[in-house]
Amino acid sequence: MANGAKQNTAQKTALITGGSSGIGRATALTLAGAGYQVAVCGRRLEALEETIEMGSDLPGKIIASAADVSDPASVEALFADLKARLPRLDVLFNNAGVSGGSINFGDLDFEDWRKVMDINLDGMFLVANQAYRWMRDQDPQGGRIVNNGSISAHVPRPGSACYTASKHAVTGLTRTISLDGRVHNIACGQIDIGNAASDMTAHFAKGLPQADGSVKPEPTINVMHIANAILQMAELPLDANIQFMNIMARDMPFIGRG
């Protein structure tokens, strides 16, 4: 197959980390609905099995493998399992992450910092690195990696040093993978999401700290908008790339923060 040629979606495969709820689950169901064979991973196998059940009548098949993305041995075992069950890897949605809560920088300790970095940065690297190697070595060569960034990759919220630093680092990782991947027909892009409705954002309606010291509720958007955007990125031929996409609740205080 020539570089950039588009495969039939019925033959395409995808891996989604954090596939047991929220954005990851919605994306798994959307890709399976488009005919992809989808692997979901997360720490809790029972929650992943719920995703499988929800997609049982879709054109594509969903499979699950439990893994801790912050643990190198667990990630290696994940990919060994998937290579035995999937013919190739066409798309990675590198989605798993944690928020870390709101902590003023002066009250932040190293344990708080590491807890977020272990998943949001180390986990992002470990999964992308394994996926990159698989895509590089498979025949036909190539694939697409989509990293989940955040609006915080552009501007921070109060008390978000860990989360914001991790997402700025993800942007650097995305740019480097995108550059290094060219020679191997690997495209890498990033989706920066603002206020998608999920378990992680359930408290947004109660109020979030604002730059002026106030606490105000913020709007959210349905996760299906995010899932459809991931599908759009995945469907591009490999000679095209959405390098960065911002998708957010229209009225959230992003432009005002910037």
Question: Topology, please?
Answer:
Layout: E1 13-17, H1 22-33, E2 37-42, H2 45-54, E3 62-66, H3 72-85, E4 91-94, H4 110-137, E5 143-148, H5 161-180, E6 186-194, E7 208-209, E8 215-216, H6 223-235, E9 244-248
Parallel strand pairs: 1-2, 1-4, 2-3, 4-5, 5-6, 6-9
Antiparallel strand pairs: 7-8
Q: What is the annotated CATH architecture?
A: 3-Layer(aba) Sandwich
CATH topology: Rossmann fold
User: H/E order of the elements?
Assistant: EHEHEHEHEHEEEHE
Biggest beta sheet summary? 7 strands, parallel
Compute the number of structural domains: 1
What are the low-pLDDT stretches, counting only 5+ consecutive residues below 50? 1-10
Q: How many DSSP E strands?
A: 9
Strand composition percent: 15-25%
Shape: globular
- CATH-assigned homologous superfamily: NAD(P)-binding Rossmann-like Domain
* Alpha-carbon Rg, integer: 18 Å
Multimer state? single chain
Distance between the termini: 44 Å
